[in-house]
Amino acid sequence: MSIHSITDQETALKDMVAKNKWGTFFGVSQQTLDRVWENLSAPDGNSVVYITMEIGADLDVFNPVQKHLRDLEITDSTNAVFDHYAKLFLHGKQKIPNYGGGLGILAGDTLKSMAELKIPTVAVSLLYRKGYFSQHVDALLGQISTATDWQPENTPSLYLLKDPDHPDLPLEIEISFFDADDRKTSAYARVWLKMEISKNLDFFTPEILLDYAIPSSPDWIQDAAQHLYDSRSENMKIIQRRLLGAGVVPALRALGITARILHLNEQHGVIAVLDLIVEQLKDKLGHAYQAVATDEDILQAAKIVSKKIVYTIHTPVKAGHDRFDQRLYNQFGNDFCQRILRLLALDDEEGHLFNFTAFAMRVNRATNSVSRIHRGVTQKQFPEFASKITAITNGVHHVTWISDAKADFYNSFKEFDQWQENPLIFSNARLLGDDPRFRSYFEQAWQQDNKALITNVNNMLLRHRKMMHETWIDPPNYLSQINEDNFLEPGVFTIGFARRFSTYKRADLIFSDLDTLAEIILTLNKPINFIFAGKAHPADEPGKKLIQQVLAIQADLYKKTNGLAKVVFIPGYDMHIAKLMVSGVHAWLNSPKRPLEASGTSGMKAAMNGVPNISTMDGWWVEGYHGGQTGWKFGIETDVSAACLSESTSTLLYKEDAASLNAILPEVLNTFYDRELRHLYIDKCIKNIELNIPIFNTHRMAAEYVDRYDIKLPPPVEKQLKALQQAYVSNET
Ligand SMILES: *Cc1c(COP(=O)(O)O)cnc(C)c1O
Known about the structure:
Layout: H1 6-14, E1 17-20, E2 23-26, H2 30-40, E3 48-51, H3 64-71, H4 80-91, H5 102-117, E4 121-126, E5 134-138, E6 142-146, E7 158-160, E8 162-163, E9 166-170, E10 172-178, E11 184-197, E12 204-211, H6 219-224, H7 234-255, E13 261-265, H8 272-285, H9 289-292, H10 295-306, E14 309-312, E15 323-325, H11 326-329, H12 335-344, E16 353-355, H13 356-362, E17 366-369, H14 372-381, E18 389-391, H15 398-401, H16 404-411, H17 436-470, H18 478-481, E19 493-498, H19 514-524, E20 528-533, H20 541-552, H21 554-560, E21 565-570, H22 575-584, E22 587-590, H23 602-608, E23 613-616, H24 621-624, E24 631-634, H25 654-673, H26 678-692, H27 698-709, H28 715-727
Parallel strand pairs: 3-4, 3-13, 4-12, 13-14, 14-17, 17-18, 19-20, 19-22, 20-21, 22-23, 23-24
Antiparallel strand pairs: 1-2, 5-6, 7-11, 8-9, 10-11, 11-12, 15-16
Helix pairs in contact: 5-27, 7-8, 8-10, 16-17, 17-22, 19-25, 22-23, 25-26, 27-28
Bound molecules: pyridoxal-5'-phosphate (PLP).
Residues 101-102, 105, 499-500, 573-575, 578, 600-602, 605 line the site of pyridoxal-5'-phosphate.
């Protein structure tokens, strides 16, 4: 990049500032802001509202605005007007702890692809002032959770919207709660806007984040609005879901957004549908609708509304679905809302419960599962709706998850021209697979990523070692307690495992027969690293136990293998750690009990970097395995039946699946280490690039969703979507 003159810089910066009656925004031109808003407020409604409890889109893994500033060689000394924004984007805090895990990151990745593909979309979610909890890990106690303090005020890409009628005041929306006697209490939210800006800064997806922890809301609302997935009580869950769902229509109204489709990312926000049903009834029956509506009227209204709803279900695990006691719910919703829910949300098995998954299943134009195998599972679980359940396999935002080293590598082959815009281009890897330059360049990039990960881990181990002497916390890793000479070395075969710690994901499976594992390693006489990360929900006791289990075997395995096997746990799993891990390890381990992992996405992130998976045949891997060309499989491949959906310990198949994993490990290690066989390992890496990047990206996924939305888009956008839709059809059998 050439040196830009100060005036050039100023012109460029001016072009990154845009205003409307709700505020001033940085990163896009006025023209782009106006265009996006025009799309969202088209009189006939031609956009999508994506409703989600969480959004994961940290700026330290993808930040096109910052990149643009750096390309312009903007420094702090620039023009005072822009100095504030430039400083914020260059040096501000790049983490937005408004996500707990996979669901939120999927949301963020999806919204980024929507921006890139120029599909008019707006998200609605909540702003949690204490975020999701921060994780500390103690060698003996395991996970320790603390509140996460962050300042949305000082976070780049977040804007508090103004009230257009009173520009000195923030915009506030109002929603209603009702006690058991139908007495109303109002809750108020300030409205934050986060922008998911496209790589070329020529489009963006706004995210509306509702902040109810403000003085005008009652204390109990403020209290419930602080922590993502607060599970102190059932009430807390009910309130949080209402803060999301009931906020949707008022927020859209306040901003003039005329959506055609509401997309429910999980059922959490489903009560937005109630507002739409009530609107229909008001239109038809007038203001006395509550008194005069018949059940038939309500069902009729629901039928009309369902044409606007697209629903994605994300898990077969029961805990993932909200079911609330009717009487409890009656303390928050009014009588008429109870009546609608009794018609549309009753639980099949327990009639005193409202089942919000059943509600979402009933009122939509399309129900989507998140992989092919999950489609079958969902159809079994909800036989009544089986015929309308289809599959749209999840993806990841490839530009976010491809490491810098791999991006440089992809950039240096013309066969991958425009790969950021068009992930389908990676199928051209088939033309390069035998090219020695391609193979050796891949290995170099991989070495760089591996070195970055190992250096990061070693620095952490050193910090922990210091901490051990300075605080009461016992650092989580055995390696910190022994000599620094025993820290990790680059180039050693490294297996990564990182995800939420919950029972069915079986994080400890690989260590469940420690003697056999140690024997395999000793026989081979080669070193191996295991790098783990992940949080357990603070209320999930068995999940937290799994973390302790992983910590507990560290010393044992190290000693049993004479120091060949090293296990490290990285506390505080977030997107930055995820990116280091998925690109820097040599294999990504995924050991859920089939068929409980609906999709899984971290393995896709590894695939984006050419890293093979070792996985049970569950979730996306059923589609990504390609007969073994891209990695390894293990574990029993039972038929998908209701019986295998159990999460109880006795049905988790530890013994069988651990034996199966141990049986393939020697081959994996040999292929990696043996000079004669190594080319087979690299073949698998390249097949990931060729076969899996074109499929498991959110561009393709978004294109499949647009097919369910039925919105009108400009011809060039349609053309790009068509190509993506034709490249892969998730719903094929
Ligand atoms: C990708 C990701 C997840 C989800 O991983 P799964 O494999 O879908 O469980 C969770 N947390 C973080 C920080 C991630 O990056």
